[in-house]
Amino acid sequence: MEYSKFGKKFGGDAGILSLMKDMGEAMAQGGDIIMMGGGNPGHIPAFQEKMQQRLQDIAADDEICKRLLGVYSAPQGELDFLSSLAGMLRREQGWQIGPENICLTNGSQSGFFLLMNMFAGEFEGGRSKKIRLPLAPEYIGYTDIGLSSELFVATRPKIELLEEHLFKYRVDFEELSVGEETGAICVSRPTNPTGNVITDNELERLDTIAKEAGVPLIIDSAYGVPFPGIVFSRATPMWNDNIILCLSLSKLGLPAVRTGIIIAGEEIIRVLSGMNAVMSLAPTGFGAILADQLVDSGEVIDVSQQIIRPFYQDKMEITRRVIAEELDGTPYRIHKPEGAIFLWLWFEDLPISSKELYERLKKRGVLVISGHHFFPGLENDAWQHKNECLRLNYAQDDAQVARGIAIIGEEVKKAYGML
Ligand code: PLP
Questions:
Q1: pLDDT digits (tens, 9 = 90+) for 184-194
Q2: 248 Cβ inside 6 Å of ligand 1
Q3: How many Cβ atoms sit within 10 Å of the Cβ of residue 255?
Q4: Does 221 sit in the ligand 1 pocket, CB within 6 Å?
Q5: pTM above the 0.85 mark?
C-alpha cells in the first residue's frame, strides 16, 4: 500500500500530532500528572450552568430538537445563527455585515486549514505564496496545516524588557516584508502561546500594509474580542472587508461542540461554503443552536466580560504570584500576560534546551510545552531564544498549578546550577 503525499503528510511526524500523542501517553501512564500542557479551556461553573439550562430547554422543544438532530444545516452554517451574529455585530460594533459575511466551520482549526491553503501554496503560472506571520512565537496549530510544505514565513519580534521580570514582543515593522510572495498576513490576538495582545496601533499598521499589498489580514481571535474576550489589556475589535476575522465558541467553554466562525468579504465566504459542502456537506449546527440565544441577545458579550475574562484573569494573577515565589533568584521572565490562558516563560541563557527541561519536568509528573514548537515560519532560524521558553496553561485547578510551578522552580534552579 502506498500513500499519496497528502496521506503521508498526516501519517508522518506532524508536530501537533506528536505533541498530542506524547501528552496523551504521559496521561495514560496514570499517576499524579499535573496538566499544564494542552490548550483545553477551564471549566467555569457559571457558564456550564447556563449551557445545561439551555440544553434542557432545547430537549423540551420538539421543533428545535428536530433541527438540532435531524436536519443538515446550510453549507455556510445554521442560517438563524448567522443572522443573529450579524445582527449582534452590527448593533454592538457598528460593522456593515450580514449573514453573507459569515461562514461556520467544524472548529476554527479546520477553518484555518481552509483559509491558509486558500491563500498560500501553489498558484497559477508556477508561482507560490506564503502566509506571513508578522510575529513568532505563534500558534502551533498552524504549523502543519499546509498542503504544500513551508506554508509560513515569520519575522522575529522586537523584545521589549519590562519591569518585574516581564517582557513583551512587538512587531518589527522594519523587518516585516510583504510582497508578491505573500498570500495573506495572519496574527493571533491574543497570541497563543505568549498571551501577547498586539496593540490597536500595530493592528492598524498591519491592516494598512495588507490593503496596500492587496492581501487579506487574518486575525485569529480564538481568545479575543468581541468574544470570548480573554483580554486583560485594551484591544478594540476590528473588521473591514479586507480582514478575515476568525472566532470560536471553544474558549467560551464549548470546545467539544467544534464551532468556528469566519467573518469575511462575501466572495471569500462563498468559497469557504463550497469547501464545507465538499468536505462535510455542512458544518455542525450543534454549537450554533446552543449559542444562538446568547449571541442574538448580545448576552455573549456580558458573559465574556463578567464570567469568562475574570475567571482567567484571577487564575493568571494567582499563577504569577506563585511564580514570583518559586522562581525567585533565577533570571526568569514572563511575557506580559495580556490575554489567552497561558503564561510564556523565558529563561535567558538556560544551560539546557527547553526541550530537555520539558523532558525533565515530564519525568517529575508536570506536563508543559517546550517553546521551540511555537516558531512556525522560523524553522531555519538558529535563534537561541527558540530554545529558552516554556508555555504553561494555568486554566486548571489552582493547587495543582501551584504544585507544578514549585517543581518547575526546582528543575530550573538545577538547570542553572543553583541547587
Ligand atoms: N487559534 C488559536 C490561537 C488556538 O489556540 C486554538 C485552539 O487552541 C485554535 C485557533 C483552534 O480552536 P478551535 O478549533 O477549538 O476553534
A1: 999 999 999 99
A2: yes
A3: 16
A4: no
A5: yes
